[in-house]
Amino acid sequence: MLPSFLTGTYQQYKKDTDNIATWLATTAKSFGYASDLLPDDKQPVQKKPKAKSKSKPKTKKQLRDAARRIPRQQREHIIPIQEFLSLAAYIAGHVKASFEVPHSALSTLKRAIEARRKSNIWFRTNEKDDDSDEGHAHFIGILEEVHDILKPHSSPLTEDAASGDLDVDNLFANLQLEEPSETFINGPGPNRNAAQPAPRIRYQAEPMKERFEMLFAAFSLFNDILKIHGFLQNMWEQYHKGDLDLITVSITSNTAIDIVRRLEQEFFDRFSSARDPEEVINMLFHYKCLLQGVQPDQKPEHDGDIPFNIDMYETAQFLLMDNLTLLSAFADVVTPNNIPIHTPGFYGTYDPKADRIKMSDAQKFQEDKVICTAIFTDFCFLARFTKNIPAEDELTRGIRIMVNDKKLHIWTLFAARLFIDVHHLLRSELDVPFKQLQDLGTKIKDTWAMTVRFRGDLELENWPPQNDMVIEENLIKVIDKWLFEDPIQTSMERVVRNVPIPKGQFRLFRQHPLLCGLFAFSLQVRAHEYGVDYANAWGGVLYTGHLYNAVRQEGYCQPPWMDMEMLIGMQTPEKIFIGGKPTNTDAYMKRFALSMGYSATQYARNRRGEGAVASRMGPRGLGTVGELSNILRDRYCENADLHDWSLDTIEKVLNANYEVNIDAEDDEEEPEPGVMFVNLKSRDKRKAKEHLRKKLRQSAQLSAVEMLYALTISMSQEVPLLSFDYFGLHRSCWSVLRITQKAMHQKLLKYFGPGYLETETQLPFIVGYIFMVASQSQRASEQLPGLKKMLRGAQVGSELLASAGEGLQMLLTSESWSTQMDMQVQKVAWYGRMLFPVKEADGKTPKVSTKIDLGEYELVLEQNGLSNEPQ
């Protein structure tokens, strides 16, 4: 079933019509309407016991008679659809001067009408069926009449409310702002006594006959899939243009397949007469063909090539029938112990330079067939690595189920459709995502290798050798095995005998960008977690951050250290400094001591090896960032079977994000080019986010596309944070501590004696020594105000702090050091976003920028440069 915060078209329609029934009944009763179909609210209500017989009353009279035979307290309060007119007419005829029909009532009616109308247009039923009491058109006509009766008794809409839909570029143009409120559901209108409790009786709208109801629900399912498909196409187009990163579109796409699976499951749970996806798809296709007066079978000129009437290609695509015919052909011949080996060129050769727009429908289907057959063998072999593959996508899982259980699901067909569509979009640049994935793997391997070399022979009790082995096993070897070897090809060569196998390495990865994106997410999350653990164990990053803040606060270092600013912005000043940035010498010392996990007595003068004095609170450290990433990590890093769980838990993060980030956008009329993660106008993006927040807060309901949009925005904001290189920042911070210690050695000897530093692993302690001297000297200056006045306001005893600030400023302004000191933000610019390297007409790579809020600064990252703008 769908999670509580998601709703499909059919589920929404059922809820809408039941809400309409409840509102009409309770409102009419409040005006004195008397009918035995509307029982007394004070009577206890119980659900009707399940009948042994499956037969149901078919006419309104039978429905009323059956209802009268059931004791009042056991009735299911079903209102025949024709009764809607009587209720609406009664309300209109007895309306009071102070009463207004709520706009949400009309909005809900219009949404129910629109859902039915789309289905009716698609089926194009004959006139007799349309006019029958059970037909689509009959239901539509009743709802339209109810709307027309009630509309004159509603107040005029404001200009904003009248516009109804959001004008959002490319993504979705039909987000409705009016939601059914509790006032509407519980009736009789906004002017009734607010203290009146909600009615205890709920009413249901009379359903159509089972045949019509199932057809409507099936159409709604595929129409929802079509909307999701259109949204994902837009996401991949934005990735192709460089406006979205590979990880975000891949996570969103795989989550969309999860949603389709849940929609499919809900459909088959509701309609037991629908036995399997293939039967439902063929039924709808044949029905549509007969309605249009054409035969569903293949045309003679395409016999053997296209197993359905190619003139109905658009309908076949809508129902995923084209993908069904392709995958079912494989399902008929493949078994767990028998995988067919594809012979290159057997069905033709894929030409990435061909113009698909100019192809006929038959040629398009043939191209799709070539794409699928060329890679199906690799998919089957990949399915055998399920327990070891770092991140499995839903298409691979669906093919594994197809191979092992001979089951083809609608969500598998949808995943195959998306796989083919990405081919059509990227075409000759299809292997770029895999190159990006390899670049990411190289980056992670390089930063770890540099960290090990940088550390040299240093040994730290908090970082035993076993920790290195964990990183090597779970990260470095995984990168080598999957990105620089080819286990799929190796397996194929080992298993297949006496049959030529397809040539070329990494065929599946080069043709499967979605898998590359999920793999990249898995690597980024693991590298992020290991980097944070390493930085916490050595302490250099956190405590150098304390030193940087102090020298900046005291004015001894003017240029910002953007890597450190980014760290503070990501981790938040409250976490880094335990309660916000300290601004005086006493606070520097106290916050540092708490972070270090030691008491201030640790830094007593002439202390010689007495051992560390621990704080009762223990040491503090950096944390992993990204709520969505933490939710999804087990699924994509541990291959956990959490396909349904992740949807349910994502709700909490999206709700929090849209409460916090709603006012983050500026008020510019036009956005800066290339800055937005999603290609939206600023005003419309803000409007969309307000809409999402409103829906999550008030009705806790999102459509599938709305949920995916919210996920896209939230995920795109986390990806740059995940790509931040904590290993690299550790090396920079440790270098700062080394240089600072050497420059200040004589002064530290003067204050603390030769035992101030017993081993290099204690380098972070020098930050505490600096703060101790500054704090103690500040207290002395306060006790001798004459001395402070004589020194014209100079900070007495800040000698060490000033010296540290001058040294850090020298590094930040040095040509040889400045690039290294700001290396991480530059890496985020072109590794974190994983931008698609499209070219402009002149052959140059366009600038692509993104903004990251760092608190005091707003960091703007660009491909061709780096700029830092004060807020």
From TrEMBL:
Residues 34-69 are annotated as: Disordered. Pfam families: DUF6604 (PF20253). InterPro entries: DUF6604. Residues 11-268 form the DUF6604 domain. Residues 45-61 have a biased composition (Basic residues). It comes from the Eukaryota. This is DUF6604 domain-containing protein. It comes from Lithohypha guttulata. The lineage of its organism: Eukaryota, Fungi, Dikarya, Ascomycota, Pezizomycotina.
